[in-house]
């Protein structure tokens, strides 16, 4: 079988394993600029609850999530930019992007598969972050509308950023009428390769421009009993430590402002391990709930992944700096949002005691995550 035939077969398999059909939400599409002559498309999903989600084909990126508060006022709760130039700028910290082929970090950008050594691109000191210099968040995906969902697909060539194997990937987005934003990420490969995808949405339930003043009022519950200890470069040491009796224990409702400054590193940027799975394969389990009492907005997260990176935007500019110019002229500062990036453990390819991250030919990588939005009055 030729390389081209193999890729076509993978694509057919991938698209054929789509989501089950559901009642369609309203989906509209429009052009949203261009990159090197290639049109960037924006898709808007709307439901009967007055919620809307915008997604663009650059990086399979969620650019906006507009939802009402307890008084019916609609705000955009996702940090991002007004136009494509913002997402292309060096100021963009992966806002809303689909990140891969390997999200999070790989120590020194090195790993070994079946006795063969690989060196991938290093873009954060000596290490590799979020797929390297030009990972999947920097690529233009193809998009179609199928069964009330937006399906985005991407071909990552063999050797892309140094990774082995041609990989066909898809990211499917669906918004239900009860407020569930369901994302399904899938991959097939032609050679053994590490795969670990995530969505890098930055949430602030009070509104995207309200910054730390309102983020500190968010109350979070995180269903994690352990966390992966890291060194000063955020590379896992291999130790998996219990959260019990520590600042990492968020299993009971915790107001972020009460704990965030006590966390090593100036805020959360750690992988948390969900309790061991039941016997049900690919079962979505409760990951987290976040609530902003003032607006009444809440978000719950469920996923089939073993870990979640809780990140409180520690590396956004300090409040005495200029800030990142985001949507509607708002500027974003440190602790202005939180991310709940469901994924495998960071650097899993280099730790035998972490869940397997190697995808092999004939296998399906399947990552599902559901962000549900609602209001408590």
Automatic annotation (TrEMBL):
Pfam families: Aldose_epim. GO terms for molecular function: aldose 1-epimerase activity; carbohydrate binding. Its EC number is 5.1.3.3. The active site is at 200 (proton donor), 341 (proton acceptor). PROSITE patterns: ALDOSE_1_EPIMERASE. Its main location: cytoplasm. Beta-D-galactose binds at residues 104-105, 200-202, 269. It is found in: Cytoplasm. Transmembrane segments: none annotated. GO terms for biological process: galactose catabolic process via UDP-galactose, Leloir pathway; glucose metabolic process. NCBIfam families: PRK11055.1 (NF008277). Mutarotase that catalyzes the interconversion of beta-D-galactose and alpha-D-galactose during galactose metabolism. Beta-D-galactose is metabolized in the liver into glucose 1-phosphate, the primary metabolic fuel, by the action of four enzymes that constitute the Leloir pathway: GALM, GALK1 (galactokinase), GALT (galactose-1-phosphate uridylyltransferase) and GALE (UDP-galactose-4'-epimerase). Involved in the maintenance of the equilibrium between the beta- and alpha-anomers of galactose, therefore ensuring a sufficient supply of the alpha-anomer for GALK1. This is Aldose 1-epimerase. It comes from Vespula pensylvanica (Western yellow jacket). The lineage of its organism: Eukaryota, Metazoa, Ecdysozoa, Arthropoda, Hexapoda.
């Amino acid at each position: 079988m030729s390389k081209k035939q193999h890729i076509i077969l993978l694509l057919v398999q991938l698209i054929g394993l789509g989501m089950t059909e559901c009642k369609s939400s309203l989906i509209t599409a429009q052009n949203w600029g261009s990159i090197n002559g290639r049109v960037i498309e924006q898709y808007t999903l709307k439901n009967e609850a007055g919620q809307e989600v915008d997604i663009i084909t650059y990086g399979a990126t969620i650019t906006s999530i507009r939802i009402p508060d307890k008084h019916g006022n609609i705000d955009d709760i996702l940090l991002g930019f007004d136009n494509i130039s913002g997402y292309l700028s060096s100021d963009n910290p992966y806002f809303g992007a689909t990140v891969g082929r390997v999200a999070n970090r790989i120590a020194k950008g090195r790993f070994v598969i079946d006795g063969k050594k690989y060196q991938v691109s290093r873009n954060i000191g000596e290490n590799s972050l979020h797929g390297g210099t030009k990972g999947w968040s920097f690529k233009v995906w193809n998009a179609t509308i199928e069964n009330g969902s937006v399906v985005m697909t991407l071909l990552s060539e063999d050797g892309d950023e140094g990774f082995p194997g041609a990989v066909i990937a898809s990211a499917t987005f669906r918004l239900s009428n009860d407020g569930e934003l369901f994302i399904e990420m899938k991959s097939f490969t032609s050679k053994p390769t590490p795969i670990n995808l995530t969505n890098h949405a930055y949430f602030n339930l009070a509104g995207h421009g309200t910054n730390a003043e309102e983020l500190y009022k968010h109350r979070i519950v995180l269903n994690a009993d352990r966390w992966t200890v890291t060194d000063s470069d955020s590379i896992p040491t291999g130790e998996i430590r219990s959260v019990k009796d520590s600042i990492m224990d968020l299993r009971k409702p915790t107001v972020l402002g009460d704990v965030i400054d006590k966390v090593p590193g100036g805020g959360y940027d750690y992988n948390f391990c969900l309790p061991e799975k039941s016997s049900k394969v690919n079962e979505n389990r409760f990951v987290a709930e976040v609530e902003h009492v003032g607006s009444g907005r809440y978000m719950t997260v469920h996923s089939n992944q073993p870990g979640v990176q809780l990140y409180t935007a520690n590396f956004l500019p300090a409040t005495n700096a200029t800030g990142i110019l985001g949507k509607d002229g708002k500027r974003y500062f440190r602790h202005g949002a939180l991310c709940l990036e469901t994924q495998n453990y960071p650097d899993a390819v280099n730790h035998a005691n972490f869940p397997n991250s190697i995808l092999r030919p004939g296998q399906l990588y399947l990552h599902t995550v559901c962000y549900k939005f609602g209001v408590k009055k």
